[in-house]
Amino acid sequence: MEECKLNDYECLIQWNSVPDLLNLPKVPPSEIKRLIIYDFDNTLYASPKPNEQLSSPELIELLLNSRDKLKSGNWWSTLETLEYSFDRCSALCENPTSEISPYIFWNKLLLKSAQLAHKDPTTVSIILTGRKHDTFHKLFERLQYASFLKDDTTNAFIFNAVCLKKNCNMNTFDYKEKVITSLVESLNIKNNLNEITIYEDRKHHVRQFQAFLTKLSLKASHTVSSASWHGTVVPVAAKNFLLHYEDEIAIIEKMFDNHNKICIEQNLNDLPIFKLKWSGIKSGFFHGVHFTEEFIELDNKLFEKIKKYHPTQILNKYPMYIPITVPGNVLSGRICAQIISNGDPKIIDDKTFCRNSINNMKFPKDSKRNNLLNFIFKITAISLNFESVGKIPSIVYKVIPVGESKGKFIGKKLEDLYLVGKTKAKDDELKEYWFCKTLATEPNLIKQSMNWIDVKDGPIIRTTFGSYSQLDYIKTPGYNFQSENSNVQ
Description:
Residues 47-261 form the Swiss Army Knife RNA repair protein HAD domain. One of its GO terms (biological process) is box C/D sno(s)RNA 3'-end processing. InterPro entries: SAK_HAD (IPR018812), YMR265C_C (IPR056904). One of its GO terms (molecular function) is histone H2AQ104 methyltransferase activity. Residues 276-471 form the YMR265C-like C-terminal domain. Strands 9, 10, 11, 12, 13, 14 and 15 form a 7-stranded antiparallel sheet that branches. The chain has a 5-stranded parallel sheet with strand order 4-3-1-5-6, with helices on both faces. A two-stranded parallel ribbon has the order 2-7. It has 2 domains: 6-46 and 106-241, 3-Layer(aba) Sandwich (Rossmann fold); 282-469, no CATH class. The protein is elongated and about 80 Å long. It is built from 15 helices and 16 strands. The protein starts with 9 loop residues before the first helix and ends in a 13-residue tail after the last strand. It has helices spanning 10-15, 57-65, 79-94, 108-118, 133-140, 172-187, 203-223, 245-265, 293-305, 311-314, 333-340, 345-348, 351-360, 428-441, 443-448, and strands at 34-39, 47-48, 123-132, 161-165, 195-200, 230-235, 240-241, 273-278, 282-287, 321-323, 374-384, 395-401, 418-419, 453-454, 460-468, 471-476. Helix 5 (133-140) links the parallel strand 3 (123-132) and strand 4 (161-165). It is α/β, with parallel strands linked by helices and 489 residues long.
């Protein structure tokens, strides 16, 4: 075996961001047969994402995609979003008696494949992420203390390098393309590479990498008789982790604080000042954040029946719920007590019980519900209103209580029970408000203006009675910002 020299892997050293985790191959580049690239966020590691239950779609869009609007950086460029989960993972590693495994943060199957790849001296495998080197390299140093990221016999780090985005304003894909191209050119010096594999969770990146590898192969074929290697892009189901509500709110507040501070100090008057607020409260019976398989199957059948609608239009966003009052209105303690006690006259007039009823129905912070708050309904019909210019949401489900919920006091007439929620259609939030208001004042008008499609053997919808409000934001001119005030209204 030819002796390996340190400068043989200058390219790997150049792109590596964490010196303590650099693990150079024991063989020279001319003997390397495989190059494996692991995307980090939501592929290899369950990186935190904004919680769709907590934050409005508009706030999530701002946090994830508005790099230019938030001068402090978006969610993916904010240190604390990843640091919180690293802290949690470290705590689990330090407490081996914990019932929760640190593997909840990692893709266990990919780690097993990385372990096997590391045992092959002719394989180079790296972690490649679009996170910025300057912001995150010290945080990634902590990976050296994770025992499950080390070889079970040699105790060496199972990846050859961890590559963050260095001194570059390129987008993530272009940067990764640059790094991979450089590595292939430096490793394939004797047409020795047989295989290039990329693991990636984002669908559009999967397609881009497939096109990129094809292009790279064609480029190689111009320099030699043919490209020696074949490229594979492996789509990976995204894996993510949700932060605690309080932690996530604190992070978003800090992101807004930093943005506002930069705007004021640099007199960036063309950029808005951001402030958090809570949306209007909604009360009713809430369906879970994840749709049941039967629910999705119903919508797919509906799409097949009505060809002109796209499936993404039909699927509702969270929260889906059966409203029992107009959004923005707060239910009285007496009504809450009636629903929770099933109309028991002995306790409806108990003021303490009524007051506690309101506290007991806070949602979504306490996910473990008393059985008194759980109600079961069944979908009997669907009304599609995508082309409606009126005040009806794009899609409405008619429901009835079933099972143990049949006969319970639910605060509304049975014929006035509808499951609603926002879709991607424009103005659905406003339509939902007017639908609930009209339902409360002129229910017959609602019934007359809707065309129903009956659903045979409709899915069961398990709900929780409660009130719900989402975190949202407002933006104002910079001079209206009061730094001494809290960011949450």
